Amino acid sequence: xxxxxxxxxxxxxxxxxxxxxxxxxxxxxxxxxxxxxxxxxxxxxxxxxxxxxxxxxxxxxxxxxxxxxxxxxxxxxxxxxxxxxxxxxxxxxxxxxxxxxxxxxxxxxxxxxxxxxxxxxxxxxxxxxxxxxxxxxxxxxxxxxxxxxxxxxxxxxxxxxxxxxxxxxxxxxxxxxxxxxxxxxxxxxxxxxxxxxxxxxxxxxxxxxxxxxxxxxxxxxxxxxxxxxxxxxxxxxxxxxxxxxxxxxxxxxxxxxxxxxxxxxxxxxxxxxxxxxxxxxxxxxxxxxxxxxxxxxxxxxxxxxxxxxxxxxxxxxxxxxxxxxxxxxxxxxxxxxxxxxxxxxxxxxxxxxxxxxxxxxxxxxxxxxxxxxxxxxxxxxxxxxxxxxxxxxxxxxxxxxxxxxxxxxxxxxxxxxxxxxxxxxxxxxxxxxxxxxxxxxxxxxxxxxxxxxxxxxxxxxxxxxxxxxxxxxxxxxxxxxxxxxxxxxxxxxxxxxxxxxxxxxxxxxxxxxxxxxxxxxxxxxxxxxxxxxxxxxxxxxxxxxxxxxxxxxxxxxxxxxxxxxxxxxxxxxxxxxxxxxxxxxxxxxxxxxxxxxxxxxxxxxxxxxxxxxxxxxxxxxxxxxxxxxxxxxxxxxxxxxxxxxxxxxxxxxxxxxxxxxxxxxxxxxx
Length: 670
Prior knowledge:
Blueprint: H1 20-27, H2 30-44, H3 63-76, H4 80-89, H5 91-96, H6 109-122, H7 127-144, E1 150-158, H8 167-180, H9 184-188, H10 192-200, H11 211-231, H12 236-239, H13 242-254, E2 255-259, H14 265-271, H15 295-302, H16 309-316, H17 321-324, E3 326-330, E4 348-350, E5 353-363, E6 373-380, H18 389-398, E7 405-407, H19 418-423, E8 427-429, E9 448-449, E10 455-457, E11 466-471, E12 476-482, H20 484-488, E13 517-520, H21 523-534, H22 538-544, H23 549-561, H24 571-594, H25 613-628, H26 638-654, H27 662-669
Parallel strand pairs: 1-7, 7-8
Antiparallel strand pairs: 1-5, 2-3, 4-5, 5-6, 9-10, 11-12, 12-13
Helix pairs in contact: 2-3, 2-7, 2-24, 3-4, 3-24, 7-24, 8-11, 8-13, 11-13, 13-16, 25-26, 25-27
């Protein structure tokens, strides 16, 4: 049963049981900032999380404190038990969560795990946690007086709790996950070869032998996939399970069906994805390196070609004579947006590895104060950064934090996306890539255009003879047509971006062609060339230096908060872990900015009263007595050890203020 937490803070917290010096140190730590700034935001957000609980039963543990534990866990990068132990024994955690002196600081691990499980199940998009993130970041920006006019973004790779070892391991693990999910009756229906393999050969993948033996084993595992898909196709109890869906997905992504006469041993050897001279199962990074950037298009092509129609029919469960007469062949290449592990079906393959990618945006150019993360996005690693800037800016606009200037690296600008960024009235400061164009070639910014976007004059002073809609290789676009005879005799031809006629002999130069020249003049290309010309200036390079600061944020997130390798699997849980780590990073920076000037958030204690001369003398006598009793030839005793320990450890903290009577108490004791 959901019950809101009373927001009234306790008069007697855990700090009342501490000495004055320790209380001062506690007040100067991050725990005080968390208690005064973060905890009230979490308590105000409790109503949103009421959907996780029913209307009857035992009242819930405080949702605000549960969220606080999740954030503090990521603040310190603790596992569950370490976080619960810190909550039970660490006065800073208890002070941060406002546990009073008579309250038991205890929470079972089961309660913490079930809270996260309910949150992941009811809100896989993490909209609730995104509201908490927005509220805390807004509070930090407002309290610290930060400006969101300039922001910077970057992406980083996030690995979930999985390991990948190539195709053979992927096939084996997917088959084992499926077989283990079967009931006893379904297990008894397995083919004898599959059962023998599962019971005797399924463990381990090292020492597989030669490349031919590896290809043979991979082909055998692929045939097991097809047998199991065909066997349980009509069994609704099995075919409706997630494990069966993984079999179908794996088969469709890595296998294809061909006629028997085409599946000769030589053809099969060519069709294998594993090269003969390398270890086929060394690492997932050994394949698809040049296809990751075009993963979505490649995935469509790979699954829509006529050669793969039989695999699609088998994956859909169509038991036809056509598919029955076909043999299983391993595809040579696959896209990055494919299954990488049956234990984490949402993880994909990108140029940085297997896992996920996190887009992170933060403020910048705020002198004297830490920057705050303002937005984020988590998706599979196969998705590229190219063209992501408009989506990020739209998210910032929805949260009223849209910048005027956005700094990014060279992976974000693209020809189609730059006009969309410009339409949002945002200046994107990022290096653009002109593709295969030579660096000596000047851009379209050197040409003169009219208000209709048509060329009126080239840098050499020549006018085009026509404007036409011509193909650029992928789609029809606007082109300016120039007289070929004039262009061939122009001194600027070698550095001009105009395109020579296509009908020319191989190896012939542009001056040896026949026909007119053309120049694609779309608004996107004009904007790209203008940005490229600007980034060649020293002023642009000096201004762009601020972008590199976001790399320090990535280092902080991975080094202090464990963003590089998570303890969870699956996109919903990865989203929850990432947003908690980003909030924790903002909290750490907020506490750093609010720390007192005399030492920072982790500074030493500040005595409540200045030390008097009587207290200093008493402390000196206390230290001398401990030294005298342990001099040369004197055997150390328990009392001597106690004197020295008290003098060296506690006296510096208590002689300035010990319940208001420093000198008297120490004099009486000594």
